[in-house]
Design goal:
Layout: H1 2-5, H2 12-15, H3 25-53, H4 63-91, H5 99-123, H6 130-157, H7 163-183, H8 209-214, H9 219-227, H10 244-280, H11 284-297, H12 302-327, H13 330-343, H14 349-396, H15 401-405, H16 409-429, H17 432-451, H18 455-465, H19 471-492, H20 500-541, E1 551-552, E2 560-570, E3 579-587, E4 591-596, H21 602-610, E5 614-622, E6 626-629, H22 640-645, H23 652-661, H24 665-670, H25 688-702, E7 706-710, H26 718-729, E8 739-743, E9 755-760, E10 763-768, H27 770-776, H28 779-787, H29 791-796, H30 803-813, H31 825-833, H32 852-858, H33 887-897, H34 899-927, E11 931-932, E12 935-936, H35 939-984, H36 988-993, H37 996-1038, H38 1043-1087, H39 1089-1094, H40 1098-1147, H41 1154-1184, H42 1186-1195, E13 1220-1228, E14 1235-1244, E15 1249-1253, H43 1260-1267, E16 1273-1280, E17 1283-1284, H44 1290-1294, E18 1297-1300, E19 1309-1310, H45 1311-1315, H46 1323-1332, H47 1336-1341, E20 1349-1350, H48 1359-1373, E21 1377-1381, H49 1389-1402, E22 1407-1411, E23 1423-1428, E24 1431-1436, H50 1438-1443, H51 1447-1454
Parallel strand pairs: 1-5, 4-8, 4-9, 6-7, 7-8, 15-22, 15-23, 18-21, 21-22
Antiparallel strand pairs: 2-3, 2-5, 9-10, 11-12, 13-14, 13-16, 16-17, 19-20, 23-24
Helix pairs in contact: 3-5, 3-6, 4-5, 4-7, 6-7, 9-38, 10-11, 10-12, 10-14, 12-14, 13-14, 13-20, 13-41, 14-16, 14-40, 16-20, 16-38, 17-20, 18-19, 19-20, 19-35, 20-34, 20-41, 27-28, 31-43, 33-35, 34-35, 34-37, 34-41, 35-37, 35-42, 37-38, 37-41, 37-42, 38-40, 38-41, 40-41, 46-48
């Protein structure tokens, strides 16, 4: 090396053992000069590859770029000027050493390369180059040594020896310094880059390298969040690479590839199996089983798809983790050197300053790299959740019905919420799987270097403690390990001296060990949970999909719109067929009715036409687009207008004519916001009839070719049904000329249809027109004769009416567009709850009878639609709490935990930290014990006290953790019990304006937070707070000078903390609020998949879901970045603490012993993490304690009257008569609204059968709600058998009245549980009830009989069957008073007739109140009550009411009964 340089390469006397160190010229000209070049040449190949892959458009040659290029050229000139000067010297016969030729040549070429790279980056659109910033920084750093050295040499010699090289070096230094400064500035955006149309784009992509490194680009958001609570509009959009659109596309591509590969393997395996079969002659069934088994074992791997999509990005984070792990062992080694330095009083001071600076530099580098690692991990987790959520959503739109039925809606939503979340949580520490063993091995290696074999004792204890992974083990494992190791070390050999270096370096290494030891079991546990989630998701994604080609849409028999040939269909491949040998031809433009008993397969036939069933054999063809109206209307949580438009373009004229035809005009007048009224979840604030008409309006507006109408008329009363048939479905309706398939139970419309298809037990028994079926004289003809109205009633339609009858019709009937609409008990509340007026002006709609009356009425001018309040929304947006959490919330939680318990926990934490400080101070004192004859005295006593303090700490940790855990569990139980108690007793009105998701959120997410998140957060907060406090105390006690810097550091810490906490807390709240709509939309989609598929709206629903996920991830991403932003800044403060602790130790080394230095700096090395986590826990605590506030809010809502009032309990056999009396009774839905029933006076005698009719909003359901005290009286009272119902407990009242609602309520569970939830009745009684409700045949045919499993909401029963189950339940209960809310609307006429007979016979002595749609069911009732605008309009026997020719007469006439 001397020959190469002309001088010595390294001289310790000049460079190390001196108070004024310097580097040899050889070292400066080789190592320092070459390091930047080596870096650039090493990085360059990889960087060029990267640049080729990501072209962003080119940047115009700016002044900045020109300057950088000119400076680069100048640098090259300066370097080669040195080279030419060396040649000049050679010519002058002064032969310079080779280094003066090689170094300028190498550095010059490197500068040319850097200059070319500046231009190449510009052409590739790179605005800020990290590679070049690091290059210029390293160049400046390496040149600093030479900079100082040349000045020292010149000053020492009194003159400049080599003027030319001296001058060129300082020019070189100035140029690289300017290059470094210029490279920190950004170029302008490139041309031809994709235009970002986003109004609020994320500044990350356009930020510079240093800004990305330190997350400086987030600072503006932190300041905004500090100044005011953040709102949704303040948030930046997601980077394109993080959006659902990009991620799901990539993941779907990989998953499709996996499925293709799997199918290829499966085909290959099947061929092999057949080949074996041909040779061996095995049973074919055996081979089939073999193939199926093989298929189950080898499903397409979702894991592989995930790895291929997200693996490469995640690996970048893993690379950062590797560097950080290696760096974490630098500071313990530097601590060892620092303690040696303090011991060595002759060591030059600059050693100590260098060690302090190196410690600081190492810690800062570690911080930057660690947070880059976390950023990659968290973003991978976020992308995983986006990808998985999108995949599950897309799959849910195409899976078969049998697959959908194998899981409840809740279970499928769980895949999206819980399972996708698990992947996100796992990503954070997944690298610990390899990082933890690496850290443990490195720590043990360095410990072996320090303490020798004694460390094995510590390892043994460590391994033994792994199963006891409880709080005590986690908190004190490092201490226990250290104690064991030290004990063995000092006892193995009395000459083993435990000095400060060994003790505190070992302690620092043990502290490093603690994190991987704690995390490894946790990561393994998370991995196990995630693997279960992976299986669940994979199983769901592997479900069979509906075959889009099972219904032919292009080729159909000429003249036909629908054809089924030899069709056999089942709901699942393994189930027996629901439809057999179906042959059906529907001519284009015809109206076909499908009729049959309950459960005969009418809805199944419609589903088969939609392609929703498994086609076992045959062909199905449907020509053109399809519109579908399901039996149970599917309504979105959107405005009424959006529900009708359903993504179609708005057309005012068409829209108004659809509203008119579907009898919705009057409803719009009733609704507070007209067609801009927001409809709640599942159409909660519409009556059943309104829901069905909205569903029908959607179909009519869609202007499809084929209309499949699954019994849309059963939910509306006969009058409205007639209007809809005449105006929409019938020969003269809005759909004339379209192909219509109508499932119906209403025989009055059958004469007007072109063809009737009769289904019996899944087969077509008869087809033909009305007249043809009558002539065939089959079973259906008998049925028609029994139930069809008289012929002469039909003829009456054609007769001209007298003027006064027209007037009468207009006066009475115009008020009854929806005379007795489908209003389940709760729906009337939901509707009325938001009504601003209970008195509604006369309808502007004409009577719906296809008669002269209609024609007269049609001459009226069409009135313009009413302008409504467009801001009326039913469900208010869930508000985000803003600002700091009130202290009252903390106090509330403390009270739930117990005030004494809370104080005890704080006291125990103080004791625990006092014991820890005591143990370490004792250790410090022990290490300073003088060594006499090669041994330390009092070793046993020292060890004993250290052990005692350690054990005391362990005991206190155990006590505090246990107390906190028990307090947390107790608080969660208490808060949950209060919430549950309140919600069971909350009035109905609360549920009408509060989405189910929001209530469930309180019971699931918020209780989960209180139960499982809050206690560990408090534990971490207390731990980090006391650790940070301990550190400051110990350092100030060791080096009092530290108190000077603690104040400015504390001020910076406080400001960063306040900036962060306000922003982070609000981001978490916004994230929490934007999460609920994803799941609400998803569950809504799952229930409406058949409608979405029928209308071909899948893609637009996918877009909505993607936008909701992106909206949620927007706040989540900023939350991740806020943690990184905080981490870099807080850890920088921690690194300053390390630096100053080391610096003051160096400055005060003459007054300090090694033990105190070790104690001080080892504490400082721990504080970085504690400071960071303390702020994080402050934010988490403030964020999560909000759950207590949210639960408290819902625990204190208004409740109903008491369940039981002991001193007012009625007799056990009450009511004996069943007499019901309303006395001056008035009721409103809530304060501030008008009365819905006003001064009602009526008396129903015991055993009377009362029919209740009236238009929507007349107050029919309000009466039944009042009877159950779901609504409380505004004034007046109701008496049952003379007992005022307002004075008795609700349980005593409600248990004595039975209701059969129109919307049947069934729970998932066995049929027995649904019929007899409290096990009150015998088997015989249950079977008797089933027989009377005409379900016995169906239940007997099921393998499980009474143990037949009802799916969620009774989905595996037809709507009619569900209503029969409710009837059977009522028959079992058989109370004195029975309320029927049109309980037989979805049942065919014959079954309905039998059921009415059952009710008449079985409830013979009971009082029956029936809200009627089919007037024929109440024509033989004792009396009829006609309600109008909340008052009694008519109340008499049916015959008297018809004779008086009032409102009831008009209704009966329209129904063909008068």
């Amino acid at each position: 090396m001397e020959a190469f340089c002309g001088s010595r390469f390294w001289d310790p006397n000049i460079s190390v053992h001196t108070e004024n160190p310097d580097l040899t010229p050889c070292f400066q000209n080789t190592v320092l000069a070459w390091i930047p070049s080596i870096y650039l040449w090493t990085v360059l190949p990889f960087y060029i590859l990267y640049l080729k892959r990501c072209k962003r458009g080119y940047i115009i040659l700016s002044m900045l770029s020109r300057f950088k290029t000119i400076l680069g050229v100048l640098l090259w000139c300066v370097c080669w000027a040195d080279l030419f000067f060396s040649f000049h010297e050679l010519l002058q016969s002064r032969t310079p050493p080779p280094v003066y030729f090689v170094t300028p040549l190498v550095v010059g070429i490197t500068m040319v390369l850097a200059t070319i790279l500046i231009q190449y980056e510009r052409l590739q659109g790179i605005r800020s180059s990290g590679v070049l910033i690091i290059f210029w920084f390293v160049s400046v750093l390496c040149a600093l040594g030479s900079f100082r050295s040349k000045i020292i040499a010149a000053m020492a010699q009194g003159h400049i020896k080599d003027r030319f090289r001296f001058t060129t070096f300082y020019i070189y230094f100035a140029l690289i310094l300017i290059e470094l400064i210029l490279s920190c500035y950004q170029e302008k955006p490139p041309l031809f880059s994709p235009v970002n149309s986003d109004s609020n784009p994320c500044p990350e992509l356009n930020s510079g390298f240093l800004s990305k490194l330190t997350f400086w680009w987030f600072t503006s958001m932190a300041i905004r969040g500090y100044k005011k609570p953040l709102e949704d509009k303040d948030l930046w959009s997601l980077n394109e690479a993080d959006t659902s659109n990009v991620i799901i596309q990539q993941l779907q591509k990989e998953w499709d590839r996996q499925e293709r590969e799997w199918k290829q393997k499966e085909v290959a395996y099947t061929k092999t199996s057949n080949h074996v079969l041909n040779h061996v002659g095995d049973d074919p069934k055996g081979v089939e089983v073999l193939i199926r088994d093989k298929r189950q074992r080898k499903e397409p791997s979702f894991l592989k798809a995930l790895l291929r999509t997200f693996g490469p990005y995640f690996l970048i984070g893993s690379f950062y983790k590797l560097i950080q792990d290696l760096l974490s062992f630098v500071n313990p080694q530097l601590l060892s050197v620092l303690i040696d330095f303090v011991k060595n009083k002759d060591a030059p001071s600059w050693w100590g300053f260098s060690i302090a600076a190196l410690m600081f530099f190492s810690a800062v580098l570690q911080t930057i790299i660690l947070h880059q690692h976390f950023q990659y991990c968290f973003v991978t987790g976020m992308r995983l959740r986006t990808g998985i959520t999108g995949m599950i959503y897309r799959k849910s739109l195409v899976i078969t019905n049998s697959a959908k039925r194998s899981s409840t809606v809740g279970e499928i939503v769980n895949l999206m919420s819980v399972d996708a979340q698990r992947f996100m949580d796992l990503m954070t520490f997944l690298n610990m799987l390899w990082s933890a063993p690496l850290q443990i091995c490195l720590a043990l290696y360095f410990l072996w270097q320090t303490l020798g074999p004694s460390v094995l004792a510590g390892v043994a204890v460590m391994i033994l403690l792994i199963p006891l992974n409880a709080a005590i083990a986690i908190k004190t494992r490092a201490l226990q390990v250290a104690l064991t190791t030290f004990a063995v070390y000092v006892h193995v050999d009395e000459h083993n001296i435990l000095d400060a270096e060994k003790a505190f370096v070992s302690l620092t290494l043990f502290n490093i060990l603690r994190f991987p030891l704690n995390m490894l079991p946790q990561v393994i546990s998370n991995l196990a949970q995630t693997s279960v989630s992976l299986k669940r998701i994979q199983q769901f994604l592997s479900h069979d999909e509906l075959d889009p080609n099972c219904v032919e849409t292009k080729v159909v028999t000429p003249g036909s719109a629908i054809s089924i040939t030899n069709g056999t269909f089942s709901w699942a491949k393994e189930l027996k067929p629901s439809l057999k040998n179906i042959n059906l031809m529907v001519p284009s433009g015809s109206l076909v009715a499908i009729v049959g008993h309950v459960g005969c397969g009418k809805s199944s036939l419609v589903s088969a036409l939609l392609g929703e069933m498994e086609k076992l054999e045959g062909q199905v063809a449907v020509k053109g687009s399809v519109a579908y109206v399901p039996q149970q209307a599917w309504i979105q949580n959107a405005t009424l207008k959006d529900n009708i438009l359903f993504g179609q373009q708005y057309n005012e004229q068409k829209y108004q004519s659809v509203l008119e035809a579907c009898a919705l005009k009057t409803d719009l007048e009733v609704l507070p916001g007209g067609d801009y009224t927001e409809i709640g979840e599942k159409g909660i604030n519409l009556s059943g009839g309104q829901r069905q008409r909205v569903s029908l309006a959607r179909a009519v507006f869609s202007n499809a070719d084929v209309y499949l109408l699954d019994d849309p008329l059963s939910a509306v009363d006969s009058h409205v049904a007639k209007h809809i048939f005449d105006h929409v479905i019938g020969p003269e309706g809005a759909l004339k000329g379209k192909t219509r398939v109508l499932v119906t139970h209403g025989i009055t419309f059958l004469p007007q249809v072109d063809q009737i298809v009769v289904l019996v037990d899944g087969k077509i028994s008869e087809t033909g027109s009305y007249q043809e079926l009558l002539k065939q004289n089959g079973a259906f003809a008998d049925f028609l004769r029994t139930y069809a109205p008289d012929e002469d009633l039909q003829e009456e339609e054609l007769t001209m009416l007298e003027d006064e009858e027209v007037l009468l019709a207009e006066d009475t009937l115009s008020n009854h567009t929806d005379l007795a609409d489908n209003e389940p008990v709760t729906n009337e509340v939901r509707k009325q709850f938001l009504r601003q007026l209970s008195v509604i002006s006369s309808d502007r709609e004409c009577p719906s009878k296809m008669s002269t009356r209609r024609r007269v009425c049609e001459k009226k001018a069409v009135e313009p639609p009413l302008q409504k309040n467009l801001n009326t929304t039913l469900i208010q947006a869930e508000t985000a709490e803003t600002g700091r959490v009130k202290l009252s919330v903390f106090w509330q939680y403390m009270k739930a935990v117990g005030v004494v318990t809370s104080l005890v926990i704080c006291f125990l934490y103080i004791c625990q930290n006092a014991a820890a400080i005591g143990a370490n101070v004792w250790l410090s004192d022990w290490t300073n014990e003088p060594v006499i004859n090669g041994t330390q005295q009092n070793t046993s006593m020292r060890l004993g006290v250290y052990a005692a303090l350690g054990l005391l700490q362990g005991l206190i940790v155990l006590l505090s953790s246990f107390t906190l855990a028990m307090g947390g569990i107790g608080a969660a139980c208490k808060l949950h019990a209060v919430l549950l108690e309140n919600k069971f007793r909350t009035p109905q009105s609360f549920f009408d304006t509060t989405p189910t998701g929001r209530i469930i959120n309180r019971f699931s997410k918020d209780i989960y937070v209180i139960d499982e998140v809050l206690p560990p957060t408090i534990l971490m907060f207390l731990g980090t707070f006391f650790t940070s406090a301990s550190t400051v105390i110990v350092i100030i006690a060791s080096t009092p000078l530290f108190a000077v810097v603690i104040i400015p550091l504390a001020v910076v810490y406080f400001f960063v903390q306040r900036f962060y906490v306000g922003t982070s807390r609000q981001l978490k709240r916004l994230e929490s609020i934007s999460r609920s709509p994803i799941y609400s939309h998803f569950s809504e989609t799952i229930t409406g998949t058949s409608v979405i598929r029928a209308y071909g709206r899948g893609n637009s629903f996918i877009s909505v879901n993607d936008s909701k996920v992106d909206e949620n991830q927007k706040s989540y991403y900023l939350n991740i970045v806020s943690n990184r932003w905080l981490g870099v800044r807080i850890e920088f403060i921690g690194n300053c603490v390390v630096f100053f602790a080391a610096l003051f130790a160096v400055l005060g080394r003459n007054n300090l012993n090694a033990g105190l230095v070790g104690l001080s700096v080892s504490y400082a090395l721990q504080v970085t993490m504690s400071l960071n986590w303390m702020v994080r826990m402050t934010s988490d605590l403030e964020t999560n304690i909000v759950a207590v506030e949210r639960v408290k809010e819902y625990s204190e809502t208004e409740t109903e009257a008491p369940w039981i009032i002991e001193d007012k309990r009625p007799p056990g056999d009450w009511p004996t008569q069943g007499e019901v009396e309303f006395v001056d009774y008035s009721v409103r839905y809530r304060k501030g609204l008008d009365l819905v029933l006003e001064d009602l006076n009526l008396r129903v005698k015991g055993g009377e059968k009362i029919g209740i009719v009236g238009r929507t909003g007349a107050g029919k359901s309000s009466m039944t709600l009042s009877l159950f005290r779901i609504l409380e009286a505004a004034n007046g009272e109701i008496r049952i058998d003379g007992v005022r119902i307002s004075e008795i407990g609700l349980h005593d009242l409600r248990s004595k009245i039975t209701i059969i609602p129109q919307d049947p309520v069934l729970f998932s569970g066995t049929l027995r549980i649904n019929l007899d939830p409290f096990n009150k009745y015998s088997e015989d009684e249950i079977w008797k009830a089933l027989e009377l409700s005409h379900l016995k045949r169906f239940v007997s045919s099921q393998p499980g009989m009474l143990e037949y499993e009802c799916s969620e909401g009774g989905e595996n029963l037809s709507v009619g069957q569900r209503q029969l189950v409710c009837l059977a339940r009522a028959l079992l209960r058989k109370t004195r008073i029975l309320v029927l809310d049109e309980a037989t609307a979805a049942i065919d006429l014959e079954t309905d007739n039998l059921i009415q007979m059952t009710i008449r016979t079985q409830f013979d002595g009971c009082t029956v109140l029936t809200i009627a749609h089919r007037l024929n069911t109440i024509m033989d009732y004792t009396r009829i009550l006609v309600l109008d605008k909340g008052t009694i309009a008519e109340f008499d026997t049916p015959s008297n009411l018809i004779a008086s020719r009032g409102i009831f007469y008009s209704m009966a006439k329209d129904a063909g009964l008068a």
